[in-house]
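Section 5: illustrative case.
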């Protein structure tokens, strides 16, 4: 019967031989390495359901996932599988069996490790020493508590004399940061302090290991065994002298080491690097010169991390630094113990635990034989997903639950371990593989991928093998070499054409110019792929970023190109900051005693209370709302202002909670807080003063939330919040508003994209340089706790080097994850800079990619503006393009409606940059145009800036929205807010004036002519050269009718006299003439140009130019 049920399960899954083995193997531990796109989730669900088929109850299986979302997805898939099994042919008893299992899935132990730890603690509160009703503290509040206890503890340490050396030698600001770092990683810090590290002995050990390593000693031996005559004959007299001095210094270093003088030894080594290895003398091509150069390279890799000397700014090793380090380490440990105890006391007072506590207490509990045995009897099978992202403590918890019963099943991929910042340790997976292999467990490698087709997979593998490397290094267990996958699909499943890999770069003399240019080049290429049919729908495309700071340049380029996009950023719509803050405010209004919601309200930009203020307000453990009614004098002046604002706003809104619908209440919240203006303030581009064009996203999200409240049919705020909780509990993820989520390009971080796949994937911002490490402490099993001092101790230098090396190895894995999301086409995009000599400066991953492709530096730039083909090292083609000058992006629709029919657009996207058109303007003309463009958004109430009015009218014409269209009102309101008009009077005035001008234009014959045009392009951007300087402009309206092409330049200036009009024509005419010259040179046909004055003494008037 059991075998029959298992076969029923397996029929539902299309499993290959290895997947089937992973799903059905029993009686021994199993480790599955699941490559990208190898069907890991299907294998997991198949194994789980097979366990059910053989009679294991859901509560007796612990399925541990990396995230709540993953747990919800797995639970959903298991439930769906059981429903399908009920519909299969079979007897009533089988269907009843599957039906009964379905009812038990809600209580199944499918959860994160922290949820399982919490369950263990609640079952053993006495043994753990915790209250069974403990709360899990909000991470934001925990952070505030940590900050406060550090500040309070340091204030107390000042009064204790024996702490004075610590306070004098480490600046208070650095010491505060140091203690916060240690407290944030408090469990690891406790373990690191327990490691008995004798500084002097450790330095001697490290120096001896490195000086006697094969990489170093074999070259020293080669130099020492050369006779004097041979040395001079081969190297030349000067280099021979340098070699003799180097060997003498090396002998002194060895002697110092034998005399237990690590600093003396390091000083001699430092001298070798700074003095002897800097020489340029010697016969080129000689054996000695070759050894000498190789020794310098190996010195930098092996000895420099400890002794320094490779860089001119490197500090000398010093006795002072090592003595000071030994003196301050025990004081730092005592200071940490104080803050740790204070933090622990704060949590105890709140009867709360944090995530570290869940792991720590469960870890300790499972060391008790009676607790461990109870849980081993409770569970028949342990399954762990994403095992490569676990830490040693989590590993011990899992192993304690599994025991040696052969019931452990783990799935992971070391190549995809990218959560070191969450304390994941990739070496844990490797160690467990080795352990289980030695214990006769089963290792399975799912190396067949169902994602990328063969040509793309091989090209990607070729690139990754060159960048990452393929040889395992046993001295760096955290380094994961690249290993290839096998493609299931020979050809692409989508209509893409080769080359299937592309490299697109924006280049300029500085990064600030190059980054937007990279976005422009990418947007233009996406337009081209769409028009060629290689992209069918925009939602086939995903742009992946190393960090969200890279979004603005690409968001702006996509918006300019008219490409719809949605920025995921690892969060669902209701987790977006601007939406989350509003929801917290609603929660606080619905229930002022809800401290979690109230804490979010207090920290939101609308009120802006500091973490220290939140800590002060909870000192007596009363709810925030009650405390706010009392004495606020302990708060800072700024926090008091925010607190009083909270009281005023809530006193106004609380009476409305049960009286008005949720939509009306939310509108009142937005109005009272001037929330749109707050978003306007927050939404500034990367460059100072540059408003981000992608910022409309914030307003769109706000409008979407208002729309959601209406569509929810919720009567009041509590019903709406309950609905959101239901959505969240069900694991649904609401997409962010941009255009529509469906049919939009996705922008997300690489971490957010893990587990996802798209037909076309763009690795964006590949030129992003790794930020400089600001860490002032490191924790390790070998070196314990190391911390920064001035001068720098050698162990801190070594710890920093090792940590940065681990970071670099993880960067390789992040790159692997990014490149393996693509199904059909992969594009790598980034920025590069060049100097006056034209040599390239390729930062970040872009340099590694460039080297792998073998692109000569000058070729890369001399071919700028022209697409050309290069190859990977194994000959796979790569389309390459470098944009050196600004290129216009035409926000053209794929097709243009004409008389009810669809025709192809006559204009093609401008992928190549426009070279100079020979247009030279006089300084006077340029100055007059620039003067017209200056404006102030802020005016006295009731007075509308002409520039603001013009921008809003232009936006309506661009969207071709006029009075009578219901979408116009929302657009005008949104644009008024976006323009920074914070008062209702000025917003109402500008909306009324804009409506008046649009009504007037709608009634003019020009409107009918444009509306029936064969082609129409509004707000058309382009770039051109003037006096050797690149200028960017936008044509208001370009359209084509039976008579040809026409340019319209709209002006909203209120004209009161003929003289004023003549002056304006003189000012604006050069613009239109320039537009005509640009377009005529591009279209190679004559183009008419007209100024359209929308308010010429109350009427519309056209002026030919």
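Designed sequence:
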């Amino acid at each position: 019967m059991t075998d029959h049920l298992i076969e029923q399960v397996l029929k539902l899954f299309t499993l290959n031989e290895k997947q089937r083995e992973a799903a059905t193997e029993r009686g021994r531990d199993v480790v599955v390495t699941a490559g990208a796109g190898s069907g890991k989730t299907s294998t997991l669900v198949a194994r789980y359901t097979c366990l059910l088929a053989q009679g294991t109850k859901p509560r007796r299986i612990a399925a541990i996932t990396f995230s709540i979302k993953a747990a919800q997805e797995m639970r959903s898939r298991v439930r769906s599988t059981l429903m399908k099994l009920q519909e299969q042919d079979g007897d009533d008893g089988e269907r009843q069996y599957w039906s009964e299992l379905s009812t038990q899935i809600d209580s199944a132990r499918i959860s994160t490790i922290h949820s399982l730890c919490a369950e263990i603690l609640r079952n053993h509160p006495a043994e753990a020493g915790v209250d069974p009703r403990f709360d899990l503290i909000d991470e934001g509040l925990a952070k505030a508590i940590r900050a406060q206890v550090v500040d309070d503890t340091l204030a107390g340490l000042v009064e204790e004399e024996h702490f004075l050396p610590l306070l004098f030698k480490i600046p208070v600001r650095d010491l505060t940061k140091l203690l916060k770092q240690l407290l944030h990683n408090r469990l690891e810090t406790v373990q690191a302090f327990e490691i008995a590290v004798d500084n002097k002995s450790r330095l001697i050990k490290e120096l001896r290991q490195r000086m006697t390593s094969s990489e170093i000693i074999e070259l020293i031996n080669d130099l020492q065994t050369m006779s004097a005559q041979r040395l001079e004959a081969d190297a030349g007299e000067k280099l021979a002298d340098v070699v003799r001095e180097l060997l003498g210094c090396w002998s002194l270093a060895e002697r110092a080491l034998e005399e237990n003088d690590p600093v003396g030894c390091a000083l001699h080594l430092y001298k070798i690097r700074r003095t002897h290895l800097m020489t340029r003398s010697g016969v080129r091509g000689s054996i000695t010169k070759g050894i000498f150069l190789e020794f310098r390279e190996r010195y930098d890799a092996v000895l420099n991390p400890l002794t320094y000397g490779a860089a001119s700014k490197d500090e000398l090793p010093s006795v002072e630094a090592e003595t000071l380090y030994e003196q301050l380490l025990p004081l730092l440990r005592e200071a940490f113990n104080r803050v740790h105890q204070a933090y622990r006391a704060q949590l105890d007072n709140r009867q709360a635990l944090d995530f570290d506590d869940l792991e720590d207490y469960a870890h300790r509990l499972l060391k008790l034989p009676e607790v461990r045995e109870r849980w081993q009897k409770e569970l028949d099978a342990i399954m762990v997903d994403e095992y490569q992202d676990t830490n040693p403590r989590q590993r011990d918890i899992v192993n304690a639950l599994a025991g040696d019963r052969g019931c452990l099943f783990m799935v992971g991929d070391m190549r995809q371990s990218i959560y070191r910042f969450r304390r994941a340790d990739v070496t844990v997976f490797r160690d467990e593989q080795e352990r289980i292999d030695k214990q006769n467990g089963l290792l399975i490698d799912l190396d067949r991928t169902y994602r990328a087709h063969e040509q793309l997979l091989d090209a990607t593998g070729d690139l990754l093998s060159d960048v990452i490397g393929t040889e395992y290094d046993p001295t760096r267990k955290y380094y994961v070499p690249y290993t290839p996958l096998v493609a299931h699909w020979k050809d692409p499943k989508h209509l893409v054409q080769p080359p299937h890999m592309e490299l697109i770069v924006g280049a300029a003399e500085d990064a600030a110019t190059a980054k937007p240019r990279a976005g422009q080049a990418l947007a233009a290429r996406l337009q081209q792929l769409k028009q060629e049919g290689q992209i069918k729908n925009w939602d086939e495309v995903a742009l992946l970023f190393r960090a969200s700071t890279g979004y603005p340049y690409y968001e702006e380029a996509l918006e300019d190109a008219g490409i719809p996009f949605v920025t995921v950023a690892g969060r669902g719509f209701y987790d977006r900051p601007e939406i989350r803050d509003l929801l917290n405010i609603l929660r606080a209004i619905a229930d002022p005693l809800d401290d979690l919601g109230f804490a979010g309200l207090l920290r939101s930009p609308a009120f802006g209370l500091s973490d220290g203020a939140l800590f002060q307000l909870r000192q007596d453990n009363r709810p925030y709302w009650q405390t706010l009614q009392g004495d606020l004098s302990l708060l800072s002046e700024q926090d008091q202002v925010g607190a009083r604002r909270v009281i005023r706003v809530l006193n106004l809104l609380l009476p409305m909670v049960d009286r008005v619908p949720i939509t009306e209440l939310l509108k009142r919240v937005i109005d009272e807080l001037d929330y749109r203006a707050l978003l306007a303030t927050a939404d500034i581009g990367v460059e100072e003063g540059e408003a981000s064009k992608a910022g409309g996203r914030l307003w769109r999200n706000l409008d979407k939330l208002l729309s959601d409240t209406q569509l929810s049919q919720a009567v009041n705020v509590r019903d709406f919040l309950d609905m959101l909780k239901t959505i969240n509990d069900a694991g649904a993820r609401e997409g962010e508003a941009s255009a529509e989520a469906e049919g939009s390009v996705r922008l997300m971080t690489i971490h957010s994209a893990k587990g996802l796949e798209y037909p076309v994937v763009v690795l964006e911002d590949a030129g992003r340089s790794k930020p400089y490490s600001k860490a002032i402490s490191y924790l390790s099993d070998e070196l314990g706790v190391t911390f920064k001092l001035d001068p720098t101790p050698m162990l801190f230098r070594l710890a920093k080097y090792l940590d940065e090396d681990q970071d670099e190895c993880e960067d390789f894995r992040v790159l692997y994850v990014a490149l393996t999301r693509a199904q059909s086409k992969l594009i790598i995009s980034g920025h590069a800079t060049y100097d006056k000599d034209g040599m390239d400066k390729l930062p970040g991953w872009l340099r590694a990619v460039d080297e792998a492709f073998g692109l000569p530096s000058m070729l890369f730039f001399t071919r700028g503006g022209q697409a050309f083909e290069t190859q990977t090292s194994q000959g796979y083609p790569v389309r390459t393009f470098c944009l050196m000058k600004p290129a216009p992006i035409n926000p053209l629709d794929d097709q243009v409606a004409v008389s009810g029919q669809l025709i192809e657009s006559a204009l093609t996207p401008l992928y190549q940059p426009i070279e100079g058109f020979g247009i030279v303007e006089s300084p006077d003309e340029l100055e007059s145009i620039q003067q017209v463009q200056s404006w102030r958004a802020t005016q006295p109430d009731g007075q509308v800036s002409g520039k603001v009015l013009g921008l809003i009218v232009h936006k309506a014409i661009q969207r071709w929205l006029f009075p009578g269209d219901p979408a116009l009102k929302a657009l005008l309101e949104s644009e008024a807010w976006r323009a920074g008009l914070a008062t209702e009077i000025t917003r109402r005035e500008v909306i009324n004036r804009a409506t008046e001008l649009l009504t007037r234009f709608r009634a003019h014959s020009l409107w009918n002519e444009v509306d029936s045009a064969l082609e129409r392009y509004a707000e058309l951007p382009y770039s051109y050269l003037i006096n050797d300087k690149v200028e960017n402009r936008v044509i208001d309206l370009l359209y084509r009718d039976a008579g040809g092409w026409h340019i319209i330049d709209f002006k909203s200036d209120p004209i009161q006299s003929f003289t004023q009009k003549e002056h304006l024509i003189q000012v604006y005419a050069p613009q239109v003439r320039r537009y005509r010259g640009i377009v005529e040179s591009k279209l190679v046909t004559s183009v008419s140009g007209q100024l359209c004055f929308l308010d010429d003494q109350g009427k519309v008037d056209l002026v030919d130019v």
